Amino acid sequence: MVPLIPQAAVIPVRDGRVCLVTSRSGARWVFPKGRIELRQTAAQAGLVEAWEEAGLRGDIEGEAVGTYRYEKRGRPHHVTVFVMRVDAETDDFPEFGQRTREWLTPDAALARLEEPELKAIVRAVFAAAV
Questions:
Q1: Total structural domains within the chain
Q2: What is the domain range of residue 74?
Q3: SS (H, E, C) 1-67
Q4: Other beta carbons within 10 Å of 91
Q5: pLDDT at 125
Q6: C-alpha dist (Å) from residue 25 to 9, 17, 42, 45, 56
């Protein structure tokens, strides 16, 4: 059995909107997400990815809001998802120029996301906020 690759993702939230970024290839819209490194919690990894991929700073709100799995290059990944309250945004970040960042309503973001399990998590997060 191939081991799951642990990753963390954040749903960046500010003023009722969420932030999506393009994948490195530019082919898909995603939330900031990446591998959980040794000696790093999933929440810490999510904050690092938000900074590196989107230039966002903020705090994780509460516990993880869900998990989902996907496969990339034949390897299974397990993603833990958090909500991140954004308090700062900059255009000077590691992957600037490699990704496009856009703030959208939750419904507009859902229309751009591809992973069904991630869409279910987003729906649950924003249904609870209503």
A1: 1
A2: 5-128
A3: CCCCEEEEEEEEEECCEEEEEECCCCCCEECCEEECCCCCCHHHHHHHHHHHHHCEEEEECCCCCEE
A4: 8
A5: 94
A6: 18, 24, 25, 22, 20
CA distance 97 to 3: 33
Taking the CA of residue 116 as centre, how many other CA atoms within 13 Å lie in the half-sphere pointing to its CB? 0
Structure tokens at 97: 């120029």
Q: What is the pTM of this model?
A: 0.94
Mean pLDDT over residues 31-55, rounded?
97
Q: Spell 60-79 as b/e; 16+ CB within 10 A means b.
A: beeebbbbbebeeeeeebeb
Tokens coding 124: 């649950």
User: Which tokens is 57 given?
Assistant: 């700073």
What percentage of the chain carries pLDDT values higher than 70?
97
3-class state of residue 102 by DSSP: strand
pLDDT tens for residues 68-116?
999 888 899 999 999 999 999 999 999 999 999 999 999 999 999 999 9
3-state secondary structure of 111: helix
The CATH number for 32's domain is 3.90.79.10
